[in-house]
Design a protein that fits this description.
alpha+beta, 5-stranded antiparallel sheet, 4 helices, 5 strands, 32% helix, elongated
Length: 114
């Protein structure tokens, strides 16, 4: 990433998280100069100027940084520089529980019969 892109990435705005019963959400607002630098293949082919849904690798590649589990699930057509993300509610707790289980397995504590 060039210095110009670093400066633009630093200006990315991340909303507070909000949630419903199933997901937590946040929106990310890209600065317009950064939005204009996004590769054309990331946009919908219908010439509306809106992004298609991006993979994690793609959105991280344009400078968006978030913890694990977020998916780009929707675009806001009136404001194409606003990306909407979601992940399962309590995702962090699920990951910590999985890591603890894996550590126990590695230590031979799970599944051992007495």
């Amino acid at each position: 990433m060039s210095k110009k892109e670093d400066v633009d990435a630093a200006k990315i705005h991340y909303s507070e998280r909000y949630s419903d019963e199933e997901y937590e959400y946040r929106h990310v607002i890209l600065p317009r100069p950064l939005f204009k630098m996004i590769p054309k293949q990331f946009f919908n082919p219908d010439n509306t100027g809106t992004l298609r849904l991006l993979t994690e690798r793609e959105w991280r590649g344009i400078g968006i940084t978030q913890s694990l589990g977020w998916e780009h699930y929707e675009v806001h057509a009136p404001e194409p520089h606003v990306l909407l993300f979601r992940r399962p509610k309590n995702f962090d707790e699920q990951i910590m529980r999985q890591q603890a289980e894996m550590q126990q397995l590695a230590a031979g504590k799970v599944g051992r019969k007495k």
